[in-house]
Amino acid sequence: MAPKRPKGAGAFPKPVESPAPNPPDPAELYAALDLGTNSCRMLIAQPKGSQFHVVDSFSKSVQLGAGLESTGKLSRASMGRTIQALRICQQKLKRHKVQRMRLVATEACRRATNAADFIKKVRRETGLQLEIIQPEEEARLAVISCAPLVSTRTEQLLVVDIGGGSTELVWIDLSSVPRRDRPRAIMRLHAGFHPQNSPFPAAKVVDWISVPLGVATLRDQFNDVEDDAARFALMSWFFEENLAEFTPYANEQARAGFQIVGTSGTVTTVAASHLGLKRYDRTKVDGLRMTSDQIDKVIRSYLDLGPTGRRSDPRIGQDRHALIMSGAAILQALLRCWPTDRLSVADRGLREGLLYAQMTADGVLEDGPF
């Protein structure tokens, strides 16, 4: 006997709608846009406790500085690519009704003779007003973005931001700051590297330098060297020569209590390769600590792959394969100068620094542990 068909069989199920998440209040939103030599990146976020919550983001390789090394100008093609990306950013800002924002450009626009014309063109075609910031502010923003990764045991800190057109290094002495307050002392540097009359124990900036060599500009300088290994060695030694004016370069540093924080696509790519990630995962990379031996092993594997192998390696990616060896050359030079077992990987940088600086200045971040 066939089983009895239950009542309602064959009827269309009633949809069960989950409540839509409440859109964030536009009055609480902040935006930060970083237009570098190679990439255009933006974050839209709202403050949450002592951190912030990302509402929307954008990242695109635009190669704004392509050809800049030889011509001194931004090319028509690179400006066209960049403006297309900025139009998308403008649409996101408009959709979220963001009022508080900082939209900054860095080394490529600092160096290009036609940068002022480009800024006007961006304003005319997208409505966005870009601001060209100086190297000191760029370095300062990179430093405060890394504040949550600073160990309370760190006495001497080196923050390195490897960009497309320049590399910023900042050396900070934290020895006079109480341990639990050290990350917060880094955050206070948003007001300047040498704040006056601070009521709190201050992080002391021993020295900082902006080297006009990043992954794109360093690669372009040695494009004529055909041998892969020779080109890598020349790039690394050439970068080290440019550190001679950096005060800590001349002095040997104690390993105990010393921490390097590296923020850049190079550092995060090396970390992803070390972890063997087939698909990039920020939660596994940001804050990871790597030894110099682990980093050296990854760099040697890149050299063994050669240009063809690197191009097809999923850990490196299509956007980065042409730039990874110049970035690795910079990283190797730094580890040669300051050998350490405490290199912290930061998947954060200028955008996060811009957000922290705006929110801290407005007093909307809670004063508590990161």
Shape estimate:
globular
Tell me which CATH architecture of the largest domain applies here.
2-Layer Sandwich
Determine the CATH superfamily of the largest domain: Exopolyphosphatase. Domain 2
Give the class-level CATH name of the largest domain.
Alpha Beta
Poorly predicted regions are 8-20
Strand content: 15-25%
CATH topology of the largest domain: Nucleotidyltransferase, domain 5
State the end-to-end distance: 68 Å
Briefly note the structural class of the backbone: alpha/beta
| Helix-strand topology string | EEEHHEHHEHEEHEHHEHHEHHEH
Strand order in the largest sheet: 8-7-6-9-11-10
Helix content: 25-40%
Biased composition (Pro residues): 16-25
Region (Disordered): 1-25
Domain Ppx/GppA phosphatase N-terminal: 44-359
InterPro entries: ATPase_NBD, GppA/Ppx_hydrolase, Ppx_GppA_N
Q: Any descriptors?
A:
single chain; 370 residues; alpha/beta; Nucleotidyltransferase, domain 5; 2 domains; 11 strands
Report on the architecture of this protein.
GO terms for molecular function: pyrophosphatase activity. This is Ppx/GppA family phosphatase. Residues 16-25 have a biased composition (Pro residues). Residues 1-25 are annotated as: Disordered. By secondary structure, the protein is α/β, with parallel strands linked by helices. It is 39% helix and 19% strand. It has helices at residues 68-71, 76-96, 107-111, 115-126, 135-145, 182-187, 215-221, 228-241, 265-275, 282-285, 292-312, 324-337, 350-362; strands at 30-35, 39-48, 51-61, 100-105, 131-132, 156-162, 167-173, 204-211, 258-263, 289-290, 343-346. Strands 8-7-6-9-11-10 form a 6-stranded mixed β-sheet, with helices on both faces. Strands 3-2-1-4-5 form a 5-stranded mixed β-sheet. Helix 7 (215-221) crosses helix 12 and helix 9 (265-275) crosses helix 11. The longest helix is centred in the first third of the chain and has 21 residues, at 76-96.
